[in-house]
């Protein structure tokens, strides 16, 4: 058995130079762009990238020289014993693939780069490094250990297991140069060395279908070890390995009992090595203080059962059991390239309200995901119960009906005596409010803090405008997106679901990419989707397929192609498409052969325009929203769009012969679609806004009918909807861009700034601090009304950045930037930025009745096509100069009411007379 090597993986080892081209061009930052810690990767040819910073304009890379060395000493001496690219003529700065010697397990690589440009040659960058993980199955010397059955401490009926504690002592007999731990702790683990937790990760590793692939983490122990005796301790929680619900095995996939495989490689200063690994000499117990843990239901902790020093040398473990050898999970072992979760922010309460004796309601003022850390002092055996909810009832109690059967409850039992501090390890909650029941004494705000938990990733986008509601929606979106990053993009963090639904993210993921550096997470999710594909080609609605939902519709599994397209567009990484093209092709053919009717229509749709808003807020009161309205129009329109997507992919991946096939299929489907769904009165299908939007956005409408269809769309929004949308998950993905491309950005702006039902602003008017699952989430039946979802964002954030700010890639991951903002009456200011792989792009425009001021920043090695709202170039100045006098600016043409300029990298300040 060989390990699966993620040949598609994106490794971005980012260098920003420390030398000069001219005095104004320098490299002063060294960091890892896509990997928080490039330690233990399993990509044989990692992708090297760098950013160039310069105070000069129009800087273009013309070549590079990369050195990769096996030691930092060699690198410092300019010896690239692993790879010396030499002076390579190329403008590529974001996807230079390592082409040196083969890299074996554990190999360390140190690298640096210098670039050549139209302005001169840089100095060498500061060094960066990466290391290889364990690349082969046989590299794992240890064996899987655990307890492969229920223990006396487990509650089989409730589906909650007590945590498994394992320990092992070992001795290091020489001075240590380096110590590295490789660990697979399933479902979740915490690693301790000599009583101290190793790393700040939580809820690790990332979830997968463990029968397909298992993520291992690599942790540096070097600062924690020295010659002498040591002790390793590992706590295992259930995670998704032992499923949160066991009662429906036909629906819910479970994998067994928690288990562990790990090894520690120690390199001594004399060059010798030693390996310490899991085997049956380890000891284990389930009698520790974590008496139950479950993602849906919470964690129970009995501090009276604490085992002081359990992970330190000399602990008496005679009462512990001998660890059992257990069956391996079955999946391939893979380095986890996406970041682990961590506590990203602490959130203090905004109020603590006493409801009864020893009972309080704590309000954190913000809906988020994670848990709370509590301080408490009281008698031994006192039970403090923490219950979590997103909102309150009219009488100020927790509203928990929308959690379904998720208990969302943590229990802490005091050991007594001194002040105690506690937070859970193996659960999380989606909440704004916490009920603290049984708290001894008076609970103060300083005694409890909310801990916001999500995947460690950088914020890379900012947006602010003159419209306060637009800004608040952006903020709510940020909180909702972050709350639902859990090693996979989940739908919600609070109820008994939390599943990676594909249908929630075909376009919203694209919008998310402007806010978060989430490329590696979505690359990982693409692999989850690929591995969930059945042999016949079927792709599930949820991936990994923790729920066995293979409904064979087009719009949910089609997200596979949307995400691949987004990743390629934003990063330029062709490996994403090369890796996934065969699986995507297989699914497309599966759906075509299985679900094409005699008239050429793709008939299979499961959900329709999922969760479209009821006609009025009252009409939807108390009604359950999980009704399906399958639509052959939606499935056919999506399939047509995906045919064109595959046509592009086939060319990009050297499968050009498939291009003709996809083009022919698309041409025929377009004809059949119009025959079936076009109405001579100028609309499609049932004449819903979504039906018409899809025909317009996917270019299914014939040219001679386009104007009439546009008029119909406008009529629905303006007259029938009184300026509101009426779209569900499907239509909302395309509404803002369709209206804008039709020349009606004003209508899109009107939709975005409504605060009456249905709208994003209506959610905020009714207390939302994230994004609701339903447009009528305040009145719908509580069975399905999550208050922290992302699916209804649709293409809103894409519209913010691309259409309001004008930050849009035109070619090769922002090598050419398309800056054509919609300057909308009533919106006087937009200020946005985005950290692309090439560097920061920013756009800030302000207008009044007399003039417009537009400041832009273009990163080095990029250029932009800038569309300025002016009738002639003479109305434009930059830095006080006329266009013909400006370095880095070239006039292209005047198009109607806009002047098109091409600008090189640098900062510009345009003034336009109005």
UniProtKB/TrEMBL annotation:
UniProt cross-references to Pfam families, sorted A to Z: Bac_rhamnosid, Bac_rhamnosid6H, Bac_rhamnosid_C, Bac_rhamnosid_N, Ig_Rha78A_N
SUPFAM superfamilies in alphabetical order: Six-hairpin glycosidases
Domain Alpha-L-rhamnosidase six-hairpin glycosidase: 459-804
Gene3D superfamilies per UniProt: 1.50.10.10, Galactose-binding domain-like (2.60.120.260), Immunoglobulins (2.60.40.10), Maltose phosphorylase, domain 3 (2.60.420.10)
Keyword terms, alphabetized: Hydrolase, Signal
Catalytic activities: Hydrolysis of terminal non-reducing alpha-L-rhamnose residues in alpha-L-rhamnosides
GO MF terms held by the record: alpha-L-rhamnosidase activity
A biological process from GO: carbohydrate metabolic process
Span of domain Alpha-L-rhamnosidase concanavalin-like: 355-454
Extent of the signal sequence: 1-23
Superkingdom assignment: Bacteria
EC number: 3.2.1.40
Biological classification of the source: Bacteria, Pseudomonadati, Bacteroidota, Sphingobacteriia, Sphingobacteriales
Domain Bacterial alpha-L-rhamnosidase N-terminal: 174-344
Name of the featured protein: alpha-L-rhamnosidase
Domain Alpha-L-rhamnosidase C-terminal: 806-880
PANTHER family tied to this protein: ALPHA-RHAMNOSIDASE (EUROFUNG), ALPHA-RHAMNOSIDASE (EUROFUNG)-RELATED
């Amino acid at each position: 058995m060989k390990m699966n090597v993620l040949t598609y993986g994106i490794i971005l080892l980012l260098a920003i130079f420390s030398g000069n081209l001219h005095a104004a061009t320098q490299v002063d930052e060294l960091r890892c762009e896509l990997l928080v810690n490039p330690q233990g990767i399993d990509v044989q040819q990692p992708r090297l990238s760098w950013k160039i910073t310069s105070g000069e304009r129009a800087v273009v890379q013309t070549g590079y020289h990369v050195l990769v060395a096996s030691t930092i000493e060699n690198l410092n001496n300019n010896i690239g014993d692993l790879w010396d690219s030499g002076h390579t003529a190329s403008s590529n700065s974001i996807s230079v693939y390592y082409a040196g010697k083969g890299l074996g397990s554990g190999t360390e690589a140190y690298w640096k780069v210098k670039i050549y440009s139209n302005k001169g040659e840089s100095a060498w960058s500061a060094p960066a490094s990466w290391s290889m993980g364990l690349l082969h199955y046989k590299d794992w010397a240890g064996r899987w250990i655990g307890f492969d059955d229920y223990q006396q401490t487990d509650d089989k009926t409730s589906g909650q297991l007590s945590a498994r504690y394992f320990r092992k002592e070992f001795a290091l007999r020489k001075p240590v140069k380096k110590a590295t731990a490789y660990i697979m702790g399933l479902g979740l683990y915490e690693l301790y060395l000599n009583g101290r937790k190793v790393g700040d990760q939580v809820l690790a590793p990332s979830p997968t279908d463990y029968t397909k692939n298992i993520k291992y983490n690599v942790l540096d122990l070097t600062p924690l070890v020295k010659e002498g005796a040591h002790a390793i301790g590992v706590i295992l929680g259930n995670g998704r390995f032992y499923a949160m619900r066991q009662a429906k095995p036909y629906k819910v996939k479970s994998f067994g009992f928690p288990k562990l495989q790990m090894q520690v490689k120690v390199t001594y200063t004399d060059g010798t090595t030693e390996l310490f690994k899991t085997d049956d000499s380890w000891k284990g117990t389930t009698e520790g203080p974590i008496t139950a843990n479950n993602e849906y239901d919470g964690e129970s902790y009995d501090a009276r059962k604490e085992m002081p020093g359990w992970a330190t040398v000399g602990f008496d473990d005679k009462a512990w059991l001998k660890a059992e050898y257990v069956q391996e999970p079955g999946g391939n072992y893979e380095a986890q390239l996406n970041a682990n979760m961590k506590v990203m922010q602490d959130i203090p309460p905004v109020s603590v309200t006493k409801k009864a004796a020893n009972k309080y309601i704590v309000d954190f003022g913000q809906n988020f995901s994670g848990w709370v850390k509590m301080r408490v002092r009281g008698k031994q055996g006192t039970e403090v119960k923490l219950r979590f909810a997103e909102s309150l009832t009219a009488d100020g109690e927790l509203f928990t009906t929308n959690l379904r059967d998720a208990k969302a409850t943590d229990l802490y039992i005091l050991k007594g005596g001194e002040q105690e501090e506690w937070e859970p390890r193996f659960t999380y909650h989606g909440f704004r409010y916490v009920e603290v029941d049984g708290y001894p004494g008076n609970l103060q705000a300083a005694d409890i803090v909310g801990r916001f938990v999500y995947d460690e990733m950088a914020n890379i986008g900012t947006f602010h405008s003159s419209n306060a509601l637009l800004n608040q929606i952006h903020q709510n979106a940020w909180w909702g997106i972050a709350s639902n990053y859990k090693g996979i993009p989940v739908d919600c963090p609070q109820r008994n679901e939390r599943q990676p639904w594909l249908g929630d993210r075909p376009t919203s993921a694209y919008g998310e990419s402007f806010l978060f550096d989430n490329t590696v997470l979505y690359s990982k999710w693409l692999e989850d989707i690929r591995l969930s594909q059945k042999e016949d080609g079927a792709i599930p609605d949820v991936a990994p397929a923790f729920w066995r939902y293979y409904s064979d519709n087009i719009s949910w599994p089609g997200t596979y192609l949307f995400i691949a397209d987004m990743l390629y567009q934003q990063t330029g990484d062709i490996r994403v498409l090369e890796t996934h093209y065969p699986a995507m092709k297989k699914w497309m053919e599966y759906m075509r052969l299985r679900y094409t009717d005699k008239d050429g229509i793709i008939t299979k749709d499961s959900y329709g325009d999922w969760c479209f808003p009821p006609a009025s807020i009252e009409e939807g009161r108390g009604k359950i929203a999980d009704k399906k309205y399958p639509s052959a129009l939606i499935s056919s329109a999506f399939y047509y769009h995906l045919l064109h997507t595959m046509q592009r992919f086939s060319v990009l991946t050297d499968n050009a012969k498939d291009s003709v096939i996809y083009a022919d299929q698309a041409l025929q489907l377009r004809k059949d679609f119009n025959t079936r769904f076009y109405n001579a009165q100028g609309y499609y299908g049932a004449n819903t806004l979504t039906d018409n939007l899809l025909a317009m956005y996917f270019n299914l409408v014939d040219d001679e009918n386009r104007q009439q269809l546009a008029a119909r769309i406008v009529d629905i929004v303006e007259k029938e909807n009184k300026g509101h949308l009426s779209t569900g998950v499907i239509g909302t993905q395309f509404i803002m861009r369709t209206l804008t491309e039709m020349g009606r950005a004003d209508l899109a702006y009107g939709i975005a700034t409504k605060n009456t039902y249905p709208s994003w602003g209506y959610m905020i008017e009714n207390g939302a601090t994230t994004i609701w699952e339903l447009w009528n989430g305040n009145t719908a039946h509580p069975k399905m009304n999550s208050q922290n979802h992302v699916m209804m964002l649709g293409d809103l954030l894409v519209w913010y950045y691309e259409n309001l700010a004008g930050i849009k890639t035109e070619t090769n991951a922002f090598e050419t930037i398309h800056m054509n903002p919609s300057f909308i009456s009533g919106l006087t200011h937009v200020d946005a930025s985005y950290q692309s792989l090439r560097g920061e792009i920013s756009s800030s425009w302000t207008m009044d009745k007399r003039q417009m001021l537009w400041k832009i920043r273009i990163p080095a090695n990029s250029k932009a096509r800038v569309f300025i709202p002016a009738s002639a170039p003479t109305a434009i100045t930059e830095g006080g100069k006329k266009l013909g006098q400006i370095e880095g600016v070239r006039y292209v043409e005047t198009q109607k009411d806009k002047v098109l300029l091409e600008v090189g990298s640098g900062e510009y300040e345009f003034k336009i007379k109005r």
